Amino acid sequence: MSKLSRRKLLAAAAPLAAVPLVGKLAFDGQAEAGGHDHSSHSHPRTPASHVPGAEGHAAMIGAEVPAVGEEHDLDALLYPPPALPYGRGRLRNYELTAVDKDIEIAPGITFPAWTYNGTVPGPVIRATEGDRLRVKLANGGSHPHTIHFHGIHPANMDGVFEVVETGGSFTYEFEARPAGFHLYHCHATPLKKHIHKGLYGAFIIDPKEPRPPAKELVMVMNGYDTDADGGNNFYTVNGRSFFYAKYPIKVRRSQLVRIYLANLTEFDLVNSFHLHGDFFRYQPTGTGDNWEYTDTVMQCQGQRGVIEIQFANTGRFMFHAHQSEFAELGWMGFFEVDE
Amino acid sequence: MEAGSATARPRVGWRLWAVVPVLLLAIAVGAVVSSGSSLAELIGTNPPPADEFDIRRVEFEPGEIRILVRNPQQDDLTIANVNVDDAIVPYTVDGPTTLGRLRSSTIEVPFDWVDGDPITVGVTSSTGIETVEEVPAAIATPTPSVEGFFGYALIGVLVGVLPVALGLLWLPALRQASAAWLSAFMAFTAGLLTFLGVEALSESFELQAALPAGLGGSGLVLLGVALSFLGMTALASRLSGGAGATGFALALLVAIGIGVHNLGEGLAIGASFAIGELQLGTFLIVGFMIHNVTEGLGIAAAIAKTRVTLLALAGLALVAGAPTILGAWIGGYASSDVLAALFFGIAAGAAFQVVVEVGRYVVRQAPGGLRSGYAIGGFLAGIAAMYLTGILAG
To answer: What are the strands of the beta sheet with B54-61, ordered from one edge?
Structure first.
């Protein structure tokens, strides 16, 4: 395809004044093009491009949605294990194995991930305040890894200095506290690489006084930089773009829904959660009595909180990052609210 | 009998022997291919493929964007995701989704694009690598229509036929010129054609550089130049009966050389306009008109001392000018980047061959030959005139 170079185009006007004959011609030309700035710019404005129903979003609902896998594939990540009642000093055992795994994050798109137990995000770790947590990390990956938990624990259980080489293992042991919604992620260097490759997950510490019974959901927001250019190409909750747009999350109008929401997106400073058609209560970090009543929350990298909502209406309600770009790159889904 | 078989046998032997290296090469190639990547493993590891598409063309139709992609690399490449302005969009593929080397497909995206806005399209391979193409302004891609056809023809007439015809009207004035001045004008023609040839050559190199490595290469340019240079040489010797071309034959050669170039000019205008890169304003048309008037002068100089009919004059104007119309049509509706690179090479070769013809003419006709001040001055003036008026044309 042949093009006229920009340089040539820009130079076009320069010499006109120098040549009298040319100057006259050009003057006539400009007179003729009186409405030039408007007329030649403005192609028929809307009719040319607008065709009803041609909107890109039209097919981002239902079966047409480009999402990977079957309806219940992500249930283990979405529905956390149940909370246990308070039992001082009770031992809670978890085993995480770091493995390199190619995961399909969008139809036909594989991401060479580093995972805990083969999924991104890793499994939900749950304990009750006062439990003795024992988490064994076995490194089956090709790089050294750690687990760094958010929370209160001894310095030698922090997952910064206890680097586990390939083939090795390490067991973290500490008391689960404080109650709230936390995170865990690898803290080996380069940190950005180890996190965005997929080594992170949700970490719930239930309070001694149990929260009211609810349908509980975990949503870990993340992104994938598939072409390694320092910017995300896909955004998801729980690891697959548009998954909950294809398979809406089913809840009941009468029930309390609790969402443990965390942001583990790399590269972008913040992520957000916006719910359509309703308001919810939001408790930052899942700690304290500071609840906000809103329909949109923003989280920095590593921030998290607890959302509680009772839907006022039935029907299909969208939820998504309120950064439109993230929403259109996969971070969008639906609640299906039944009576 | 004896003599016949004696001469036939060596000939068969010669052909047989000629096949031997080819056969051996085939065996060697087979061995390398079957060894797979074991050769690379001896010295290291092959880097992963780039997995980037070559986005050849982005077309806009009401409610739809069409993206023509090609696989420029050795390994297969699979279309797995399509973005428009950083948003994932539904799409269909007309053609294979997994592309072999140098294979193409058209991606069709239903999309409500905004007229005149810049837009980016991204095609992501199954390995997650995104190839992005930025379109400076989304405008409806012209589809063949009677008005459009006529419009491009009109542009061709305005920037091609009309200026050349006007330039030919210098003929009466040239008939009065002395032999020395006439040689200056012929040298002017040579300078003009040299300029056009270099311009076409540079355009051709630029186009081939943008092609995937598998398709491009300076060889494509050289092929075009050689094809037309040799073709024009054959034509010249036919027209002039072996002697150096003079009079109408020379004028016709000059007209052909200019015509081939103008086809390229039309192609460039048509294609740039079609992909929304060129604002087809008054300046541009006027600029090309002034630029091309000098081409008419070049043709006229060759027939200054020859009697030609008005019909023959009109024919020369058409040969030199009308290809602009054809070029605008091709560029506007169906340009191919490979053919365009080859084509500009052809334009360069044709121009250079005519420079040779004109040069030989000047040697024969000019008092003092090529070293006369008239010839040198005329040649330089030809280049300068094209350069200065070229600034107008953009």
So the answer is: B54-61, B64-70, B104-110, B92-94
